[in-house]
Amino acid sequence: MHNVHKPLLFVSLLLLALFAHNETMAGERAEVGVVVIHGKWDAPNGHASGLANYLSREGFLVATPEMPWSGKRQYDRGVDGVLAELDKATEELRAKGARKIVLAGHSQGAAGGLYYASQRSINGVVLIAAGGHPQSKVFMPHYQSSVSEAKTLVAQGKSDALVSFSDLNTGNRSRNMRTSARILLDYFDPEGPFNTYDNAEKIKPGTAVLVVIPSRETEGLKKMADSVKQKLPSEVKASQIEVDADHLGAPDAAKSAIRDWLLAL
Fold this sequence. Notes:
Layout: H1 2-30, E1 32-37, H2 49-57, E2 61-63, H3 79-95, E3 100-106, H4 108-119, E4 124-128, H5 139-155, E5 162-169, E6 173-180, H6 181-188, H7 196-201, E7 208-214, H8 219-231, E8 237-243, H9 250-253, H10 255-263
Parallel strand pairs: 1-2, 1-3, 3-4, 4-7, 7-8
Antiparallel strand pairs: 5-6
């Protein structure tokens, strides 16, 4: 009888160990708060929603704010609003128990996450199919006349005056929009606060960065993402992966790799 109980005892101990391990892993995931930031003209329930839902199911704390560049809001706030809204999202995650904060941004959302990480101390930032580079050779000539008009208005003390402009997006898409001179310069002035090269250089030491490049991305955006990575300070722990996807499908394609990266923080 004594020998019969030994296998049962072993199995019981093994199950107990596995249960304890799973509980520990679940606790570790619940201590990581992730702000998933959508791209230009998108929304929290858009192209990055699959990533947000997946991370939530995996046990991470997740926030999905609607940003000023959404299709609904159309640049209704500048970078001061970006900081305030992401501050609110991170504070809500901390209130729920998050001890580590990561921003995961898609396209324009990656530029927003990069800007935030240049201004605040966080644990990590994920740049998924990074877009919104006002210093790029594509953006500068396209927005030049609108930026010049906005600078003139600001110099005249008319920073709240509205400026009409054509907004570019991936896939050769464009939309006619209007926003204030001040807000336009925040996002589209090559020398302004959303310059992704400048922001990469300002990332705080100790921040982890994951650059996600979709294999079917345009060559121009691939080069920009790689250049952003090269601008990061040497003290920043940077990783780069390529996923089998186009620009819009990158968040879904990268979700398991992002989960693994988060667990290793």
